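## retry 2 of 3
previous attempt timed out at serialization; input unchanged, resubmitting
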Amino acid sequence: MLGDMTAQPANAVKGQIFSPRRYSVAPMMDWTDRHCRYLHRRLSRRTRLYTEMVTAPAVLFGPKERLLAFDPVEHPVALQLGGSAPDELAEAVKIAASYGFDEINLNVGCPSDRVQSGAFGACLMKTPELVAECCAAMIAASREVGGPEITVKSRIGVDEQEPREILPLFLAAVAEAGVRSFTIHARKAWLEGLSPKENRDIPPLDYPLVYEMKAARPDLEIILNGGVGSIAEAQAHLGMGVDGVMVGRAAYHEPVGLLASADREIFGEERPDKDPFEAIEDILPYIERQLAQGVRLNQITRHMLGMFAGRPGARRWRRALSEHAHRPSAGPELIREAMGHLSQTAA
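## retry succeeded, writing output
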């Protein structure tokens, strides 16, 4: 449900200039790795892709190449950082900037136990002054090295906070530090009493509040996130005045439905929608390169299970990949064989 919407959805107009974040796929732990992003990019040229959250200490002291490297094809791609120490975040920005990300985003929305123990993520909604300090340090570090824009992804509040009171104050404090773009997950996060999974579904969505924040702060870029399940829903939200829409699990489970027509429907490009069979053919050379570097086929195909959702043979496609892609000898031929179970015509 989209709330009390009275305006008609805005349609993309040929030649109109849109925010580069008009449509994006959310950072999702264990899902939006480089293989997932490569697949998504085969479906849409314009949709902005986000990495899984990487903590600032991991960037400073961990395996940087494994954490930060990506294929140039993935552009436009953003790195999401987690942390609450301004000096660590600043150093992480300097390191990450050298990898060529188009944006670096600070996580102020994840409610997992991991981020709570580290006092970052959604916990930071309680300390907007600290978020502002972190962002100011990140912006200064990025400017120093000629790096990308620093943005923030947040919730509308946490625990007993009243969103209509806290969210405007949060935006004001962080905007004062120099942040111009905010992605707002239109749910509160309950740090006690709900699991991370429950926090994605149980707190009610408050889309009108996000619309109100955009109306109150036209100087800021406001991206709406949370519960968006189709391109039609994304267009409806855009029609309410927000600058962009970020989709999450729906894009992962049904990537063709959420991405294959996005360049045309969301960005107004005059180009054919991407055919899923063509997208699979496009990714096979990448798979061969990855296998040669020691990657297992199932590390890639786990992101491809929903590619043919709704088509005859989709279940057999999923089953073939799920049951056989983990084998050491599995390669592109398994994918071609699995495609043989599919109908070229959508159901």
